[in-house]
Amino acid sequence: MRARLALATILLAALGTAAAAPTPAPVPVPVPVPVKILRAEPRPIEIYAAYPGTVIPAEYIRVASRMSGYVEDIKVHVGQSVTKGELLLTVNPVQVAAGVRQARAQEAKARAALDTARKNYERFKALYVAGAIPKERYEQVQLGYTAAKSDYQAARAAVAQAESQIGYAEVRAPFPGVIFSKKVSNGQLVGPGKELMVLYNPKQLQIDVQVPDSAFYALKPGEKVPVEYLGRDRSPHRIDATVQRLVAASDPMTHTHTVKLLLPPDSGAQGGEYARVMIPVRRVPSIVVPAGALQERAGITGVFVVDAHGRARFRMVTPGERRPDGVVILSGLFPGDRVVVSAAAPLANGTVVRPEAGGGA
Question: Rounded to two decimals, what is the model's pTM?
Answer without folding.
Answer: 0.54
